[in-house]
Fold each of these.
Amino acid sequence: MIDIDRNIQRLVTELNAFPGVAIFSSCGGHPDPSTQSQRSAGEFEVSFNIYPLHGGWRSLELIASVVSECVEHGKLTITVWSMGGGGSVCFELVGREKADPDLLAKSLSIAREAFDDDLSAA
């Protein structure tokens, strides 16, 4: 895992295990953010694309379900945004208020394993 902040490595690995999900940016938070793309300490973000023909929509549905049902759901959001020019949309998963990325990764892993056959057929 090149250039992935240690505290979100498990979350990034788990999200990448979902069919049709491709991570393109992440930040685990920094005590003194030095660029606009860096999150403050106690926050994290993972940005990703979805490839619908490779099970991506079903994966997104499951990820969103886990986020909304997670014990820390009030600290987690998924936002959709456009790359501009009528191109593809992207998604950003954000944790705030010291949300635990490992707890979310564990919940995602359990959900993915429970629906593994369904995801691979999508």
Amino acid sequence: MEKKLEKKVKVEILKPKVPIRRFDVFAEWNRIKALKEYGFSEEDAKAYGLAVAKVVAARKFFGHRLKYRGATREYLEGKTTQKWWEKLASAKEFDEKIVERMGRDFYEKVFSPAILKAYEEGKDYVDIRDSIRQEWNKLLEG
């Protein structure tokens, strides 16, 4: 008599190294927007996404008003060649503060594809910023 061997397949659930913040979602959302709507290179898109998140956080948490309102439009319209976001962030910093913080595997296989999907489905950032990270952050609890 032959014994039937059962193969147990272990399914690995990728989870972030640390809790996912609104800041992370906003930076990624704006990285994608820069790629899709503005035609930025990947390097510029990363710097732009992080810079926009920093500007909003500075305004929200510290009351700072940074003078970049309209600067992206001026760049896109060719009125200036100055990339304001380069003063505040870089692609390397995006990788350090967003990608490596949560874990590159999680970022590439889970986080970024989920944000891209929501963006391409036409969802609004405000509508997804909390719900999209809820399950990921629960994975860290247990």
Amino acid sequence: MAHIQIPSPLRQYTGKQAAVSVPAKTVGDALAGLVAQHPDLKRHLYSDDGKLRAFVNVYVNDEDMRYLQKEATVLSDGDTISIVPSIAGGNCQNDRRTCNSGVCKS
């Protein structure tokens, strides 16, 4: 079984579970099993063409799967998968600040 850590913003789609266990041989299998158990997650993890969204980072035992074999990364029993969505900054104008080359200044 692979154990998938669910980030706080996505827990509303997993019945508030912080982790979900799924039988899987690869990361792709694990994510497919997760989405099969919790279908509402699919639109948050995958684009319409079925590819993992660019802002969704997936780690296997603290290693970025993009530097392993991506979704084909083979799992061992007890491996932990962490889903880490990227977080972007806010809008400077909404913050009453001015932007200069992407750097916000008061």
Amino acid sequence: MATTTDADVILKLYDLRRESVCRKAREFFISWVPATAEEAKLIGTGFGRQDNAYVRQAATYWEMAFSIANLGAVDNDLFAKNCGEGLIFTLKCQHLKQKFPDAWTRTMPEGEAFLAGNAHAKQRAEAIRKRHGW
């Protein structure tokens, strides 16, 4: 059962998401749809590019959050109910890797581990896959 400490962790994670650069990074990654493998590779590996920085910041924010849940520092079911965007990012990375296997190298292993081990997250992921055609 979730505790008030778990709720505090969720609220802190939410508060961190509101930071202006993190918000821009998340907005970029959620709306970005690469048209070609070359575009995916350029943005995925183009250190020094703002779009690459946004992808790295958005993905690593959620990887950090998933690692907190995976190590048991927050109630998994409470976290699963509050990590929809992180699931989208995890599934998007999987989709891009499948679509552009030689161009897209970013994965989210912490997100994938959380998804594999939480029934509520699996259920949400199926809805996300259907909505996005992944």
